[in-house]
Amino acid sequence: MWLLNTARAELKFFPTPEGIPGGYAILSHVWDEHEQSFQDIQALRERCAKDGTNPRDLASDKIRNFCILAERDGCQWGWDDTCCIDKTSSTDLSEAITAMYRYYSLADVCYAYLRDVPTDCDLHAPGSAFRKSRWHQRGIRSSSYCVAARMAWAASRETTRPEDEAYCLMGLFGIFMPPLYGEGENAFLRLQEEIVRRVDDPSIFAWGGSTASRTRMLC
Question: DUF8212 domain: from which residue to which, for each copy (predicted)?
């Protein structure tokens, strides 16, 4: 697990998310068009090592403010899926996808960043920007619901890549399947098949997906 040092936005590897010294915060957000990657953060570290600049000062607004907030709240480390996963490494990517739910559940604090909600928004007003935020269609939610309820919620989510809609739910259901980028919506069918095999909850047969491809296995 790669984590950002909140004081300097430098990456460090930890074998597991359990017992991180100094604690870690996690960022839940909607990806923007241009996000700093693992390689970008590493390159920033090398660049700043030459002149003594703090890499955090040159990080994106999102990463910099996340680190500042986490440091203020007493966390020495932070995790953001845009830059804390080396997506050029199939091993690192697979491990992060499989352990994603653990990452969230073991974090000391989770911040939700809603870029499309103004700071003066009335959170309780019907039809408010908060209620319409894209963030509500993303991220990890509670696993306390039955399988059918979780699948119904998952069907309305949005992800950057179609496969991620299924992959990021593996931890939620306590299952594993190898990521196969390029398989598209077939990943969701594989997820359903794994749930049927491993989870003792017949409510999945009461769930109906939003597209024919998703309901094919259950009908």
Answer: 186-210
115 Cα distance to chain centroid: 16
> CA torsion 95→99→100→105, rounded to 10°?
-160
Rounded to 5 degrees, what angle do the CA atoms 81, 84, 88 make? 95
Both tokens of 94, joined, read 């697979």
Helix, strand or coil, per DSSP, at residue 65: helix
* pLDDT tens-digit series, residues 19-53: 899 999 999 888 777 889 999 999 999 999 999 99
Report residue 111 as tokens.
Answer: 């911040």
Q: Which of 217, 219, 203, 105 is nearest to 152 (CA)?
A: 203
Rounded distance between C-alpha atoms, residue 31 and residue 154, angstroms: 18
Amino acid occupying residue 104: Y
Q: pLDDT digit string (tens) for 96-128?
A: 877 887 888 899 999 988 888 888 888 888 888
Contact between 116 and 134 (Cβ < 8 Å):
yes
Q: What is the pLDDT of residues 143-179, one digit of tens each?
A: 334 555 555 555 555 667 777 777 777 777 777 778 8
For the residues of 12-33, what is the DSSP string, one character each?
A: EE-S-STT-TT-EEEEEEPPPS
Q: Name 195's Cβ contacts closer than 8 Å, sequence gap at least 6.
A: 147, 151, 173, 175, 201, 204
By the 8 A CB rule, do 147 and 172 touch?
Answer: no
Which is nearest to 203 in space by CA: 147, 120, 136, 122?
A: 147
